[in-house]
Design brief:
This protein is of the alpha/beta class. 37% of the residues lie in helices and 17% in strands. The strands form 3 sheets. It has an 8-stranded mixed sheet with strand order 4-3-5-2-6-7-1-8, with helices on both faces. The chain has a 6-stranded parallel sheet with strand order 9-16-13-10-12-11, sandwiched between helices.
Length: 518
């Protein structure tokens, strides 16, 4: 029996609309919830639905990022006085804490996509809550489209789309004119200061100087937004030995271990302070206690697919106004704060209003394969907020034919079904599947692991050197990745793949199996 508190502590702004949320979902299976940053929607809404009379199965909370999924599960479990893995659990790539008693399961968008491809009707699920939907990742858009498709045959499945910066009316229309509930949220005043970029200074130097100035002039911990891991490392080098007494550095990005990420978001014990050097991973879903200073470099790194090469590369771009507002709001989550922006005030109006949805710029081969796996050949039959561009869709289908995953009529083949079982981009799944013929499935799986998990094995261009470092790495993240690679190899081999293969193929030759079209 789940013990649900009558009131949660501390009180949060979202509490004022929880009755509206419950009443809406009792009357209608669709809901759009627009709540300002810091309102508490991520952790309070799932708990408020535990006792709903329509809830017979699990509540899935779908998050864009692994760190947000783990943090949300931890906070909800704490609210119930339990450990993670009891009533509230999580499942992310390479890590999970769930049990037979888990009712609220916080999962990443990628995990949800795999789940719904395997079980389109989600028969053991009572509700799916899509959190931070404004991030508009490809997996998020696909997950919602498939959930709506399955819900057409299940009028008891509740679907909730939640966000802070979202066109609620447009999403409500997509959900069949669903009701919209809004929460004003709680935002303490944030003073915005602008520092013009000095063209003679390197970006990292200016960020470091702005951070030191903010720490001298203001109290509290600082959250510094940087585009990527390389910039975080360089700014950290410039701050080492120059920080005021009692101030600690805490990097925060996706390639860190869970323990390192947890340290970055854990509150300090006064009078200690912290400088969190973060990528866009810290824009949403996370509240980092003690932060009242934000230094925003104004840059973000986003994936861009290049059809000419068939590769997706990371490109550094200016943030959108919506992202800049999200970042600024981080300074006013728990008390009044200050945001330092490294651009002049007039440039804000020139920023793109919202980030471009990934579905409009990404490689769509994974999307096409997932849809083919559930028998859908035409994406126009699904409800997408932004339909996949036709040229990119045609190119994705052609690639899947080259990989023998689709036949000439666009139907999934036996090979395609095998690729769809692997939680990898189709090219890498094809590489592992074909490597079986050469006794190199485990080698291929290790290559796929280091190509999909940033930083594993270092960043050398020599693939053999990266593999050697990856296999020798005794860290927990590398160990988890090796276990994951073993599972992939086992899926295609059907045998014991726990030991790396001694296949005669060189790593480069195995990687070439991912590109049969070349």
């Amino acid at each position: 029996m789940i013990s649900i508190p009558d009131r949660f502590s501390p009180p949060l702004p979202i509490d004022a609309v929880l009755d509206d949320v419950r009443a809406s979902l009792a009357a209608s299976p669709r809901l759009v919830l627009v709540a300002a940053p810091g309102a508490g929607k991520t952790t309070r809404v799932p708990l408020a639905l535990l006792g709903a009379p329509w809830r017979q199965g699990k509540l899935l909370v779908v998050e864009p990022r692994r760190i947000a999924a783990r943090a949300a599960a931890a906070r909800m479990a704490e609210s119930l006085g339990e450990s993670v893995g009891q009533t509230v659990g999580y499942r992310v790539r390479m890590d999970s804490k769930v049990s037979a008693n888990t009712v609220i399961e916080v999962i990443t968008e990628g995990v949800f996509t795999r789940m719904i491809v395997e079980d389109p009707l989600l028969e053991s699920v009572s509700a799916v809550l899509f959190d931070e939907f404004h991030e508009r990742s490809l997996d998020g858009d696909l997950g919602l489209a498939l959930a709506l498709d399955g819900a057409a045959l299940r009028d008891d499945l509740r679907i909730v789309v939640m966000s802070a910066t979202l066109d609620g009316g447009r999403v409500a229309s997509l959900l069949g004119d669903a009701p919209v509930v809004e929460s004003a949220g709680r935002a303490f005043p944030v003073e915005t200061r602008h520092l013009d970029r000095d063209p003679l200074l390197r970006f990292e130097d200016q960020v470091a100087e702005a951070t030191l100035r903010a720490l001298r002039e203001e109290a509290g911990s600082a959250l510094v937004f940087l585009p990527g891991q390389a910039e975080i490392r360089r700014v950290a080098e410039r701050l080492e030995g120059r920080l005021p007494a009692g101030v600690r550095l805490a990097p925060l990005y996706g390639a860190l271990t869970s323990a390192e990420q947890d340290f970055a978001i854990r509150p300090c014990r006064p009078p200690e302070r912290k400088v969190v050097l973060a990528t866009a991973i810290a824009e949403t879903s996370l509240t980092i206690d003690g932060v009242r200073l934000v230094i925003d470099g104004g840059l973000s790194r986003v994936p861009k697919y290049e059809p000419d090469t068939g590769l997706t590369r990371l490109e550094t771009v200016r943030v959108s106004r919506a992202s800049a507002d999200q970042r600024r709001g981080r300074a006013g989550r728990t008390e009044p704060g200050v945001c330092w922006r490294l651009w002049n005030e007039g440039q804000t109006a020139a920023l793109q209003p919202y980030s471009t949805p990934e579905i409009l710029e990404a490689d769509l081969s994974q999307l096409a394969l997932d849809l083919a796996a559930v028998g859908i050949r035409d994406p126009a039959t699904l409800a997408f907020l932004d339909p996949p561009p036709k040229p990119a869709w045609r190119e994705a289908v052609e690639l899947l034919r080259d990989l023998d995953a689709l036949d000439d009529d666009g139907r999934i083949t036996t090979e395609g079904k095998a690729l769809a079982r692997l939680p990898l981009p189709p090219r890498l799944a094809h590489m592992i599947h074909r490597a079986v013929e050469f006794g190199a499935a485990r080698l291929a799986a290790d290559i796929a692991a280091i190509l999909t998990e940033q930083g594993l094995g270092g960043d050398a261009t020599d693939l053999a050197a990266r593999l050697q470092r990856f296999r020798a790495d005794r860290g927990q993240r590398a160990a988890d990745a090796r276990t994951m690679a073993a599972r992939w190899a086992k899926l295609v081999e059907g045998g014991d793949a726990l030991a790396p293969s001694s296949a005669p193929l060189a790593p480069g030759a195995v990687l070439a199996l991912a590109y049969p079209d070349r």
